[in-house]
Amino acid sequence: MKASLKDIIESLIFVSLEPLSFDKIKSTLTEFQDEDIQIAINDLLECYSTNKRGIQIIQAAGGLLFSTNPDYDIWIKRLLNINRKNKLSPAALETISTIAYYQPITLAEISAIRGVDSTSSLKSLLQKRLVKIVGRKKGPGRPLIYRTSNRFLTYFGLQSISDLPSQEEITKILEDEKNSS
Amino acid sequence: MDISKSYQVKLEVFQGPLDLLLFLIKKKKIDIHDIPIATITREYLKYLDQKENINLEREAEFLLIAALLIHIKSQMLLPQVNALEEEKDPRQLLVDKLLDYQKIKAACSILREKEKDRLPEWHRNFLPPLSLSDNLDLIEVSLFGLAEAFFSIMKRKEQENLKTIKGKTYSVKEKIEEILSTLYKDKFLDFLDFFNKQESMEEAVLSFFCLLELIKARIVIAIQENLFRSIKVWLRKENC
Lengths: 181, 240
Known about the structure:
The structure holds 2 protein chains of 2 kinds.
Chain A lengths: L1 H13 L5 E2 H7 L5 H17 L4 E6 L2 E6 L4 H8 L9 H13 L2 E2 H8 L4 H9 L3 E6 L7 E5 L1 H7 L10 H14 L1
Antiparallel strand pairs in A: 1-3, 2-3, 4-6, 5-6
Helix pairs in contact in A: 1-3, 5-6, 5-7
Chain B lengths: L7 E3 L4 E3 H9 L10 H14 L5 H22 L12 H29 L20 E2 L2 H18 L11 H15 L1 E3 H7 L3 H16 L3 E5 L6 E5 L5
Antiparallel strand pairs in B: 1-2, 3-5, 4-6, 5-6
Helix pairs in contact in B: 5-7, 5-8, 6-8
C-alpha cells in the first residue's frame, strides 16, 4: 500500500503546474493518514535523489514540482528552439530584491530605496508575475502595495520568503567584498 | 567596489574614494565642516575633463554621493529651527539609506546565483484541463491562428453581400462587457458562432479587437480543441 501511495503522489506532482504543497496532497488523499503521506513523500524524494534521471523533483514555494535535470539544458533548448533563457535585467533584479526584503511596499518606496525610478522594472516584474498587487495603502494617493508572488519563490528556488539570504549572510558578503578589495 | 578604478578624492584631511569619506563622516572620524566640497567638485570636474572614456554609472554614483555630501553640509550650516530630538541626524539618514541600498546590492548577487542555478531547469508548461471540457486535447491558440480564423469568417461575411452598414456606433467598453457577460453566463464562447452572430463587418472587427485586448490582459484564453476545430474562448482563472 505504501509503495502505491508513493506512486499516487508522484502522479499528482506530474499533473501540477505550480509547486504542489503538502496540504494540497493531504486534502486530495483523504483516505490516507498524514504520517503515511509524509513517509511516502520522503520515499519519493529519496528515490529521485539516489537515482539521477532526466527529471527531478524540486522543492520550492513550499511544494513539490517536477523539473528537468539542469545538465540536459542544452538539448532541451535545441528541441524547443530557444537560444537562451532570459535572465532578469540588473534593474529588475534589484527591484525584486527590494520588494522581497521590504514587502509590502509601494512603488514610491521602491524607487526611494533604489534611488531611481522603478516604474518600468516593476511593470516587467508584474508581467512576469514575479510580483503581485495586494491592495492599496491607506494614505495620500492610495498607492498600490506590492508583494512577491509564489512564482518568485519557484523562480529562485526558495521555499518561502524566510529562505532569502539573512542579514548575517549579507553582512558577511559585504565584509568579504571589503576584505578582497 | 573596485577602489583602484573609482575616483580618488585628495584633501588635506582625507585621501581616498568618496564613499569611504561618507563612511568616515558617519563614523564621526572626519568632521563634515572640514570638508571643502567646492574643492572636491572642482578637482572632480578637472578629472572628468582629462578623462577620455566616461563610465556613466560610476560618474552617476559620484554625483549622487557628492550631492548627499552637499546636502549634509548645508543641513549642518543652516541654523536649526527645531533642534529637538525628533529631527534625525541627516548624516544618519543618509548612511541608513546607503546601507539599505548596499544590502539590496548584496542580496542581488545572491539571487543572481540562485537564478543561474534554476535557469537550466525546465518546468512543465501545459494548459490545465478545464472543468467543463470533454477530455479533449486542448491547444492554446496563437494570435496568428486566431486572426486566421477571423479572416476566414470575414470572407464568408463578405460573400453574404450585406448592404446595410449604417447608423449604429459601437463602443469598445460595451463590447468588452458584452463578451465578459457572455463568458460569465456560458463559461465559454465559440469563436465561429460569436462572429457569425455579429451584425456587420464593423461590429465584427470591433469584437475581434475587444477579444484581442482581453487576451492581452490575460483575462480570457483562446483554446482550440484540436487542429482545425472550432476555437473557444474561456475566462482565465487567476492562479496567483
